[in-house]
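Recall from the previous chapter that SMILES is a line notation for molecules. Here it describes zinc ion.
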Amino acid sequence: MGQPLCGARTRVGGTCTYRAMYGQRRCRRHGGSTPVVKAAAARRLAQAKAAKTIMGMELEPVTDPIAALQTRAGETLALKAVLLQRVADLSELRYEGRAGEAVRGELQAYEHAAERAGRLLNDLARLGLDSRRVQLEEAQVAILVAVVGRALAASGLSEEQTITVRSAIATELRLVEGGKVA
Ligand SMILES: [Zn+2]
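With both inputs in hand, we obtain:
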């Protein structure tokens, strides 16, 4: 695959006709070799490679989002632990970069992983609360149905009247469920 031309504006007014560095958009002379640009290029290459790998693969559909999220959270927590160890192994957390003092990449990577893990755990906690709320509502409805059944049995209504009342209650419950009645 041929590299595209750099295309940076030159001092004489034209555009640079050197080839961009591999996986990058600019040539060496136009910033293609600074650490930040190199890191961005490495990330783009890795993403392109991964995208190419999954093309033509039979992909598993996500049928259980909670389980998928739990797996993701487990991976991120493991990654966070590994990165924390790397940070602990560093003798200095900062270094003198070209643009002044900078925080080491290991620390940045750890912070990103910690943020991601925090967000995933937060999502999981919220999903857990939601499903617990649904369980509570189902339990309340079951109690309500049992109470109504006993009240109808004790009321001395005819079988026909009981059926009418039951169906009226069912209609009202559906309206409440649909949010039409508070
Ligand atoms: Zn150039």
